[in-house]
Amino acid sequence: MSDRKITLEFNDKVVRQFMLASLIWGAVGMVVGVLIAAQLNFWQLNFGTSWLTWSRLRPLHTNAVIFALVGNMMFAGVYYSTQRLVKARLASDFLSSLHFWGWQAIILAAAITLPLGLTRGKEYAELIWPINVAVTLIWVVFAVNFFWTLAKRREPSLYVAIWFYISTIITIAVLYIVNHLSIPTSFTHSYPVFAGVQDALVQWWYGHNAVAFFLTTPILGIMYYFVPKAAERPVYSYRLSVIHFWSLVFLYIWAGPHHLLNTALPGWLQNLGMTFSLMLWAPSWGGMLNGLLTLRGAWHKLRTDPVLKFFAAAVTFYGMATFEGPLLSIKSVSALAHYTDWIIGHVHAGALGWNGFMTAGMIYWLLPRLWNKPLYSPSLANLHFWLGTVGILLYVAAMWVSGITQGLMLNATTEGGTILAYPNFLDTLNTIRPLMLMRVIGGGLYLGGWLLMAYNVWQTLRGAVPVNGSIEVFEDESGHAQPRAMGLVGSFLNPPVLFSVFGVAFACVWMFGSDFISIAGLVGTMVCVVLAYAHYESRGKKWGDWYDRLLISTLPFTVLTFLAIIAGGLIQIIPTVVAHNAASTEDRKQVPYTPLELAGRDLYVRDGCYLCHSQMIRTLVPDVLRYGDYSRLGESIYDHPFQWGSKRNGPDLARVGGKYPNIWHLRHMEDPRSISVGSNMPSFAWLLTRPLDTSTLVRKISVQRTLGVPYPNWTPEQIMARVDTQAQAIAADLKTAGASVAPDKEIIALIAYLQQMGRFEAVSPAQPGATK
Amino acid sequence: MFKRLVLEDSATLFTLVAFITAVSFFVTISWRALRMKRPQLARFENLPFATETPAARHDTDA
């Protein structure tokens, strides 16, 4: 080995780029957030244009703050800390640059397509399929760049932050690909391969774990690096960080069903989601305590250092949100909170408190180090902190009160529980209006703080020269620092792995087999457990040695992380896909949409109606009293994508079909306040003048048939004839009611869709013991 | 294949097995973490400080 030392310069250019991108896109995302909050109070702020309507802008807000603000911040933090933790420059300047510019191009594409109504209709997964392909490619670029850097590292040990980054990269890839599996119908539209309850489960397996592995784990990794650096103290307990990491990564995946409690999701899945969400409280608070207690001995610095203020507050809000989450996952609490503003309050405590404040702290800490110039104004940074904190508290408190009020009012009954106390949905809206305004003010204060940071950064950068960090290293050390690392064979052929694999395999045979095979599985499981214990007792050192080598070996560590995260997904999704399908529903099955109704439903998805209106009457008395019989699993079994919804800004629509005449729906879309006085629903008047685009309808029905929807093999002429006949009938009915609308307008298709809601085919329920 | 788990009351077995698995996982990891040696822990804890960070003189509380 050579004794010559060289200076290794880190690639901090890409860190600076991602950091500034996070700052700018964060401002954009928050401006949209304040606008849509204001629109809920003042419907006029929709401006009567489709691309500024609340339901088109809400996905823009969520995508911007998740993927643009947090995404860019995450990449900045990962690249900065990883290079220093592994003592290696990023493997490829080209991949780093491609990663940055590719990600910004994706964000720009999202900013253009979402207001235009180009959407997949699934929350946090709205982007159309060509952009999905781009996201996947750029994520692969990120993964290659990251793992290649690890392969070239000079530091053999993998610090806990690196573990969090590994788990993020692996899990997001799995989640994103599975939830975005679709069949295109055109360049700008596709249908997801899953439908109904399957789509609901996959969507929230993805949705909750987008929170877990995009908004939490990489930021925890960033916490484990930047908080010790800012406090100039090592992490409080490395032991706790090990336990925290593995239990968090294993448990989080199972929590998805807590978004679907009391719905038509099968009971076993709801129980799994609830149980694992409750267990998740422990590792989450382990992380919180580790982060906060790292500041022991440095609390006095909080008085003057805005960075530590932001970090301490961020970790505290993390703890708050991760207590509230498990609480909300209890079925009886969810019965009150689901579909209300309490969920919005919970989300924003985490998003503004944890993600936003970690971003701000990281930016303020990195700024002087990346540009070799002191922060322009620490006083402004402190003001930013207080503005942001007050903003969050106003926002969250408003949403807590609003949500609980909504829940209590909507669930309130009288006359011994037989009549709703507040039968008019608008009663709740009028009650919570002041609280929604408080939310606008809170969000506005938070945005104000963010803009102060932008100003502070701009003033700091004026005249500053960017600098890259560097260290001295031995010349030929790269890639040779892992003499005891496990290779490919050692990763898989070792006692802990072999005993675990065989034990799990026998356990599966025991659970899923019948009669003799099941007994063989039970015996095999018991033998594995006994042999593993005996081996451990006699050769314990080998097990300990395996674990120690795991801490310096990227490949087996990555594989083990993959196994930890895949278990929950497989166990929840496979039985749902195999068993909960059209052949084994309860007593009702969905009747496939007519071609016109399908076109109308796609307009419903395009204009984001599902963001305000659910289509899932829960198995709760108040829901049934208000909306009709509870929704069966089979009633949405052919819905690609599912429309169960996650928020009720307006009433549930599952059984609205036939409740009102066609003219009611037309007037309601044209001017909601002419029908529902005091409504905050935007006007959708353009539906009355825009012609319905049927050019892709034939292809759409073909794709639906491919996905298993039992459409007959109609010719294109038959499809268009059906469209024409039904449209003419609706237009004629509207004309007799006093509204003259041509049958080829979009509103006709939407009315057709709305009027079929609640239609089903009665079937014999699947019997216990029946197999697919 | 999934008849026992989906359409019968024994579906509760699923939750129980998942819980036992999670607890086993947690206990195993905790055991390993508690058995880590002090020098090893100290080494890992100080990894963020192994590289000098330039411009520390610009820290706001200096």
Query: How is the largest sheet of chain A built, in terms of strand order?
Result: 1-6
Broad shape of chain B: elongated
- First-last Cα distance of chain A: 64 Å
Quote the beta fraction of chain B. Answer: under 5%
**Helix percentage of chain B:** 55-70%
Q: Low-confidence runs of chain A (pLDDT<50, min 5 residues)?
A: 768-772
- Count of DSSP H/I helices of chain A: 27
* Number of DSSP E strands of chain B: 0
Largest sheet of chain A: 2 strands, antiparallel
The ordered H/E elements of chain B are: HHH
What does this protein look like?
The complex is a heterodimer of chains A (772) and B (62). With 772 residues, chain A is mostly helical. Chain A is built from 27 helices and 8 strands. Helices cover 63% and strands 4% of the residues of chain A. Chain A has a two-stranded antiparallel ribbon with strand order 1-6. In chain A, α17 packs antiparallel against α18. The longest helix of chain A is centred in the middle third of the chain and has 37 residues. The N terminus of chain B is likely disordered. At the A-B interface, α2, α7, α8, α9 and α13 of A face α1, α2 and α3 of B.
Secondary-structure map:
The complex is a heterodimer of chains A (772) and B (62).
Chain A: E1 5-9, H1 13-41, H2 54-86, H3 93-113, H4 129-151, H5 160-179, E2 182-186, E3 189-192, H6 196-213, H7 217-231, H8 238-252, H9 267-279, H10 281-293, H11 306-328, H12 331-337, H13 341-371, H14 378-411, E4 413-414, E5 419-420, H15 425-461, E6 470-474, H16 488-492, H17 495-512, H18 516-538, H19 540-550, H20 554-579, E7 588-590, H21 595-606, H22 621-627, H23 662-670, H24 672-675, H25 697-706, H26 716-736, H27 746-756, E8 760-762
Chain B: H1 3-6, H2 12-34, H3 38-45
List keywords for this structure.
heterodimer; A: 772 residues; mainly alpha; Four Helix Bundle (Hemerythrin (Met), subunit A); Cytochrome Bc1 Complex, Chain D, domain 2; two-stranded antiparallel ribbon; 8 strands; 63% helix; disordered C terminus; B: 62 residues; 3 helices; 0% strand; elongated; disordered N terminus
